[in-house]
């Protein structure tokens, strides 16, 4: 491997001392606790590298998020400088890797920021609104993957108001279990001292039994029972999006829910005239796919109905990527447990042809 080439593109200009791991390393290794030393990539030879923080800044300025959330982008650039200096080379390389299949050649960390900015801002608003007497909150990151969303929030949220992040994904290995395999590495989660601790949990969110286990063993546990809980997820594909909304609907312990659905719904769902339900609010599949039905940044509901205080369906007009729907739902804090039958379910509640092509053909035969 040509080390001079790595240095020239900004991938080898890291501190000689790697992060100190372990509970005693907080003062040395906390990512946001001390002023940053001068960035080694400020040198003229490396300032033009597209993988350096300065190079990322130039690419970030071309994305819609820089126009929609300029203050957030300024904060994120400070975070990227700290990460570049203190994270291991392997982790930084993964963060600036070009997204697979991306026609815009956008590094992963910028793509995730561009798509998750509305969720980041909403979670920050929820946490900042917590009263000073409230216990520290817990953030559930559904379908977390590499953990970009939690990593950003760990830097942006006040540690005096948030206790921990729980990252859930099927791609993780079970910690403490021998021979447990996973396709997503978690070394950057556990071997770096984050401002707010993060933990991973290997779960299959597509299974209804998993939701029951999360409710019984996590949401209703003694540690979390009295804490504000906020759930969020970015690009929860198809069934994952349905299950995530179901997790919110069926558990009054979750005070806020913010997610970005992906592959949900499809044009097939529009043809079937599918209608979904979040709490008591119903919305048709066509609302997702037809921008004329859902104007940009329009509040969908402002009434207090069966556990949902506010629910919004957003469609930013300047979204760079195809899926740009953001769904937010929230409940009042300290809400008393409600009956399961009044919580609503995120399932198909009305479909002209039912599910699948067989049901559609059957319905068409009846018409004849």
From TrEMBL:
Q: Which UniProt keywords apply?
A: Methyltransferase, Transferase
Top-level taxon in the UniProt lineage: Eukaryota
Q: Give the region (Disordered) as residue ranges.
A: 23-53
Looking at the keywords, is Transferase present?
Answer: yes
Record flagged with keyword Methyltransferase: yes
Q: Which SUPFAM superfamilies match?
A: S-adenosyl-L-methionine-dependent methyltransferases
Methyltransferase domain sequence ranges: 120-263
Q: Name one GO biological process term.
A: methylation
Any single GO molecular-function term of the entry would be: methyltransferase activity
Q: What is this protein called?
A: Methyltransferase domain-containing protein
Q: Which organism is it from?
A: Cladocopium goreaui
């Amino acid at each position: 491997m040509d080390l001079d080439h790595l240095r020239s593109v900004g991938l080898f200009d890291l501190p000689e001392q790697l992060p100190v791991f372990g509970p005693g390393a907080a003062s040395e290794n906390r990512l946001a606790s001390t002023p940053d030393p001068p960035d080694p990539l400020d040198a003229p030879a490396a300032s033009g590298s597209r993988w350096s923080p300065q190079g990322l800044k130039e690419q970030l300025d071309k994305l819609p998020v820089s126009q929609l959330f300029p203050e957030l982008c300024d904060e994120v650039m400070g975070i990227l400088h700290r990460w570049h200096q203190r994270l291991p080379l392997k982790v930084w390389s993964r963060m600036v890797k070009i997204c697979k299949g991306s026609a815009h050649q956008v590094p992963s960390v910028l793509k995730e920021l561009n798509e998750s900015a509305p969720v980041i801002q909403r979670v920050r608003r929820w946490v900042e609104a917590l009263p000073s007497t409230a216990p520290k909150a817990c953030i559930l990151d559904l379908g977390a993957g590499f953990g970009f969303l939690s990593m950003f929030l760990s830097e942006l949220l006040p540690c005096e108001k948030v206790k921990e992040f729980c990252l859930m994904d099927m791609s993780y290995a079970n910690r403490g279990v021998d021979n447990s395999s996973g396709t997503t590495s978690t070394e950057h989660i556990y071997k770096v001292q984050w401002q707010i601790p993060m933990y991973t949990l290997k779960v299959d969110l597509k299974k209804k039994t998993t939701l029951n286990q999360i409710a019984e063993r996590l949401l209703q546990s003694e540690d979390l029972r009295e804490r504000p809980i906020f759930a969020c997820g970015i690009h929860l594909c198809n069934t994952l999006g349905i299950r995530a909304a179901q997790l919110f609907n069926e558990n009054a312990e979750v005070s806020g829910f913010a997610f970005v659905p992906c592959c949900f719904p499809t044009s097939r769902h529009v043809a079937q005239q599918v209608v979904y339900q979040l709490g008591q609010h119903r919305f048709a599949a066509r609302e997702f796919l037809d921008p004329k039905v859902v104007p940009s940044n329009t509040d969908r509901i402002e009434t207090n109905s069966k556990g949902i205080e506010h629910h919004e369906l957003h469609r930013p007009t300047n979204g760079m990527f195809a899926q740009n729907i953001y769904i937010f739902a929230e409940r009042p804090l300290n809400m008393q447990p409600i009956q399961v039958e009044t919580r609503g379910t995120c399932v198909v509640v009305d479909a002209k042809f039912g599910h699948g092509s067989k049901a559609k053909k059957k319905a068409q035969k009846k018409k004849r």
